[in-house]
Amino acid sequence: MCQLLAMNCNVPTDIVFSFTGFATRGGGSDIHKDGWGIAFFEGDGVRHFVDHEAAVASPVAALIRRWPIKSKNVIAHIRKATQGQIALENCHPFVRELWGRYWVFAHNGDLKDFAPLQDGPYRPVGSTDSERAFCYLLQELRRRFGDCPPELPQLRDALQELTAAIAAYGAFNMLLSDGRALFAHCSTKLFYLVRRYPFAQATLADDDLSVDFSQVTTPNDRVAIIVTEPLTTNETWQQFHAGELKIFVEGSPLDV
Amino acid sequence: MCQLLAMNCNVPTDIVFSFTGFATRGGGSDIHKDGWGIAFFEGDGVRHFVDHEAAVASPVAALIRRWPIKSKNVIAHIRKATQGQIALENCHPFVRELWGRYWVFAHNGDLKDFAPLQDGPYRPVGSTDSERAFCYLLQELRRRFGDCPPELPQLRDALQELTAAIAAYGAFNMLLSDGRALFAHCSTKLFYLVRRYPFAQATLADDDLSVDFSQVTTPNDRVAIIVTEPLTTNETWQQFHAGELKIFVEGSPLDV
């Protein structure tokens, strides 16, 4: 099993604090040492970093811990291989293009005998159940909506149905973003919180580090963090229900 | 106009020496300061780095100058914006998936009024003529060969025809790789050389740096470098003919 981390905000924000705690789990405080990856949307573009070294030992992870890349949508993943060998092409997040936008996807869980008909233009490059599920999702979205991206409520309904169908094959906690919205589906375990005014101090569970967010934010900032296991010890994390799909836009969970 | 650099080898090789000279042109010794990017195949996976900062000032470029990532196929690009604003989504190289493999593409040149019918699954995310040409190439390859990747001679014929058609709209020097072969098309300017045994010393044209390749290679190593302008002052670079498409496999240009 793996661990997931995502951030969705209303202003471009750096993820250095959360990534520092999260990356410590990649071979440091935890067993997730079979690679890691992170993707940052910046406008319509994506910065995509993957590595099959443990995150604690990776020179790219060290760069990201120091370099405050600002983004409104970030998805990160640390891997404990269950299916697929330890190789770059099996590291999450995965990136594909649909409707002229990049889509980024990461998965925690294990799908058994998930072998959908793949007759669309999206084919896995690696050998994970996760990339297979991502390609299937995009194939089915394209099949339903053709060349025209749907509005958010229609997209939500389609993803609700597709994620439920995939989750019938096993644990399917997943994060998906097109750089505008962030979709999070929980099948077994996922938490979130929204940091907003008045901001307070937060202390990492995995690292000897605190940040007083009131010193580095403005009153209008809003930041949602979605993660497999709560990252901080002194904030209240909300647990997703099994089967729940949430959409985050501009730092808030939506009711659509 | 932009500058291109590619490497194709028979054993995974680092590109630190060539990239150091090349990146110096990105805002240092040259005017190419509107972003840069590099993609390394590693097995079937790709490490993809893009930045809209000048390469000389970019923290990621600094990391790559220090970190010897080993790869058999690398494509790099430094950008002088002609079409499309300075933005991450407009930085080359671009990456898409076709036939279950990643394809990496970079372009030097300027296409005028190139607006092909884009009715396949590949759509540009940014606003460059280059990404439009890449999406068109993949669309047409998929249209000709369906779900079955062709053999190299058939692929070469198709690319020869498609690159010639695109070059009718303007300068189309381009690099394309699926991680197995590297395709290089010249319409106005492109050079290459093959480094092989007996290896000698090479001295960068843009930087005060020499490497004695005989000290860092084995007699079986073979490395082809393809570039817009020769990188070294003491090696013999071959110039491509206008309209020439070359395929490099395992460090050698092929006759197919």
Please summarize what this structure is:
The first copy, chain A, is built from four helices and 15 strands. With 256 residues, chain A is an alpha+beta fold. Chain A is globular, with a radius of gyration of 17 Å.
Q: What can you tell me about this protein's structure?
A:
Two copies of one chain form a homodimer. Chain A is of the alpha+beta class. The first copy, chain A, has one domain: 4-Layer Sandwich (Glutamine Phosphoribosylpyrophosphate, subunit 1, domain 1), CATH 3.60.20.10. The first copy, chain A, contains four helices and 15 strands. In chain A, strand 5 and strand 6 (101-111) form a beta hairpin. In chain A, helix 1 packs antiparallel against helix 2. The mean pLDDT of chain A is 92. At the A-B interface, strand 3, helix 2 and strand 5 of A face strand 3, helix 2 and strand 5 of B.
Strand order of the largest sheet of chain A: 3-2-4-1-12-9-13
Going by CATH, what is the homologous superfamily of chain A? Aminohydrolase, N-terminal nucleophile (Ntn) domain
Biggest sheet of chain A, open or closed, and with what strands and sense? 7 strands, antiparallel
Counting DSSP E segments of at least 2 residues, the number of strands of chain A comes to: 15
CATH topology of chain A: Glutamine Phosphoribosylpyrophosphate, subunit 1, domain 1
Give unreliable regions of chain A as ranges.
none
